[in-house]
Amino acid sequence: MEKLLKPLGCEVRGVDLKTENRPEIIKQIQEDVTKHRILIFKDQGIVSGDRHVEISRWFGELESTFYKHPKSPHPDVFRVSNDKNEGCTNVGRSGWHIDGTFQPAPFSYSLYHMESVPKEGHTLFIPLTELIESLDKDTYDTWNKAWMVSDRRSSPVHPLIYSHPQTGKPVLCFHLGMTTGFIWNYKLPSEATASHEEYEALLKSIDSKINQDNGKYIYVHKWEPGDFIISDNLAVGHFAHSSTQAPRSEVGLRVLHRTTIKGTTPPKK
Question: For the TauD/TfdA-like domain, which residue ranges apply (predicted)?
Fold first, then answer.
């Protein structure tokens, strides 16, 4: 059973991810993730780290690039929390982004499972194609000539706007908190490095467009026990709400498990 969400996503019930292995159902899930961009599986209980990894392999090779917390249930599961003794803290709070912009090819999928649900601690998602399609011509032209440079050493340069490798729709390669600069018209004769003022203006432009019209394109996911999310990382930006770091003494323990799937196609115009 499915329930469509607005402005993106689909809520799924009646599928038990802890045991589901039928090829036809896996194929349908793969197709639906591409179609809806995020699938929210309800009432999954606690999904073990090993099973989380098994589900992740439906979508490709896992790629784990982050700190391994001692309490992580599996080497490929990134464990985050509002308590440093339970998981990595302040994750996803530096700005709207997709995962893996510092890689030659950003992660293709991200899979999330909330093992311990606090009273607060929402995750925000935004459909990137609709965001781009909402831009006026001048803003689009500015974004379209920009290439982002990650803050990671020796990171590749990626176009800000490019075509999704599966759907061909316009999407963004961006991280508002992990970008050190922009290059205009990279690899063209008119190539130039954006000034500090231009850099700041572009970051502000992206953030303001995401939040335009009271965030009409933003989907706010309020986690419930048993939620498991599969996300098309290339099609959906996300951001961790400030409440994700609210003290455990006030909202309870927050523990989120995440896996990421290796990208196979570098962003290109």
Answer: 8-248
CA 170 to chain centre: 16
Task: Please give, one letter per residue, the 3-state secondary structure of the chain.
Answer: CEEECCCCCEEECCCCCCCCCCHHHHHHHHHHHHHHCEEEECCCCCCCHHHHHHHHHHHCCECCCCCCCCCCCCCCCEEEECCCCCCECCCCCCCCECCCCCCCCCCCEEEEEEEECCCCCCEEEEEHHHHHHCCCHHHHHHHHCEEEEECCCCCCEEECEEECCCCCCEEECCECCCEEEEEECCCCCCCEECCHHHHHHHHHHHHHHHCHHHHCCCEEECCCCCCEEEEECCCEEEEECHHHHCCHHHHCCCEEEEEEECCCCCCCC
pLDDT single digits (tens) 137-169: 999 999 999 999 988 777 789 999 999 999 999
Please state, in angstroms and rounded to a whole number, the distance separating the CA atoms of residues 160 and 142.
10
Per-residue pLDDT of 79-115, as tens digits, reads 999 999 999 999 988 899 999 999 999 999 999 999 9
CB 93 within 8 A of CB 245: yes
The CB density around residue 25, as the number of other CB atoms within 10 Å, is 11
Do residues 111 and 57 touch, judged by C-beta distance below 8 A?
Answer: no
